[in-house]
Design a protein that fits this description.
Layout lengths: L1 H22 L2 E2 L5 E2 L10 H10 L3 E7 L4 H10 L3 H10 E7 L5 E3 L5 E3 H8 L6 E4 L10 H4 L2 E4 L4 H12 L9 H15 L6
Parallel strand pairs: 3-4
Antiparallel strand pairs: 1-2, 3-7, 5-6, 7-8
Length: 198
């Protein structure tokens, strides 16, 4: 009986390994963590918003940098959680920007920039910083003017996930500020006995 149990446990572990490996972040040549479900684009903001909308999703841009311990924490502790990753994959198209990178970016106002000059222009100085965009944007706006929310820094699972949910539910159009929304969800999770450490 013990032998069968060991074999079943071993088989379960082997079955789980490819799934875990498929969801694991890797390190790219630029030194940034890469999720297999991040979208690689030409970083044309207007085009990316349209592509996301065409897939029934919202565009989220994440700024990271080589050696960022908070970025590593986001990938290893938060984005590795299936509940978080599955929700984001289903509802958002995530495009990664290197805060000190040289890839070309086309702002919503038509300006051609590099990733690092875009970060300076838009005023983003922390990594990770996640910027959330609406489904459509008025002509002539730059990214910060069009953004519906910005999440600077690394947070625990529930703050992180609730920000994505709040944006998806267009909480920014309601009277329920994100902090109130987050507190309400945390209380509901606590009542359900689902709350783990932040």
């Amino acid at each position: 009986m013990r032998s069968i149990t060991k074999r079943l446990a071993g088989a379960a572990l082997l079955c789980a390994l490819p799934l875990a490996a498929a969801n694991a972040a890797t390190i790219g040549d630029d030194g940034l963590h890469k999720q297999p479900w991040f979208t690689i684009t030409f970083k044309d903001m207007a085009e990316d918003i349209q592509t996301a909308a065409g897939e029934g999703k919202r565009l989220a841009i994440v700024f990271e940098q080589r050696g960022c311990i908070y970025c590593a924490q986001m990938h290893e502790k938060v984005l590795s959680d299936p509940e978080v990753a599955d929700y984001i994959k289903a509802n958002f198209m995530v495009v990664q920007y290197n805060m000190f990178g040289d890839e070309e970016v086309i702002d919503l106002d038509g300006s051609e920039l590099t990733e690092k000059s875009a970060a300076r222009k838009w005023g983003y100085v922390f990594t990770p910083t996640i910027v959330f965009l609406p489904e459509d944007v008025a002509d002539g706006q730059s990214l910060p003017q069009a953004a519906v929310a910005t999440m600077p820094g690394a947070f625990g699972k529930w703050t992180f996930l609730n920000m994505f949910r709040w944006v998806k539910e267009k909480g920014y159009e309601s009277d329920e500020h994100f902090q109130k929304y987050h507190a309400r969800i945390i209380n509901e999770l606590r009542d359900q006995g689902r709350l783990d450490a932040e």
